[in-house]
Amino acid sequence: MVKQLIIFCFVVIFGMPVLAQTDPTAPPVAQRSVNKKSTAVLPSLQAVIQDGQQSGAILNQQFVALKESVSGYTLTRVGHDHVVLARAGKHYKIQLDKVSVKQFTGQGQ
Fold it and tell me: Which residues form the signal peptide (predicted)?
């Protein structure tokens, strides 16, 4: 009986700090490694700029010229209401919503 009490005390004294360090709400290790996928998020399109000298777009709140990159995507095509981005051999078309499409004549209007 004394031997069992000593073992119990040993487990309580030295085992509790180990138990306290683990997060009981964390998912099992096998599930965490399986569920991790790296997914690239497409940049958000705020504006399309078509100019005879330099066409581009406002992507993620910054100007990106044709053939330049943002967030790992290369701007390959600029349309009047959309852009095409390329990454890893795939192409992605991002379109402005109808409310955002405005045409300017360059005459101050």
Answer: 1-20
